[in-house]
User: Fold this.
Amino acid sequence: MAQAPSPEEKRKAAIRAAGKYSGMAFQLFGACLAGVFIGKYLDGYFQLERPLWAVFLTILFMIASLYALYRQLLRDG
Assistant:
């Protein structure tokens, strides 16, 4: 018969889960920031009036990051 986890083990598991999921949030945030900064650089380099690269790369990086997070969540089960 399996023994129920102790309160200390439950607390450690909760802290571990919170760390993992907050790391995922920072990963998404970092990907969006990377898209913005790279896009702004390209917009300035090509002297565009509208921030086309910034918008495109931000959306692209966000979608790629969401896909990576989705795959990671599926793998973790």
Notes: The chain has a mean pLDDT of 92. The CA atoms of residues 22 and 57 lie 23 Å apart. The chain has one domain: 21-76. DSSP finds two helices and no strands in the chain.
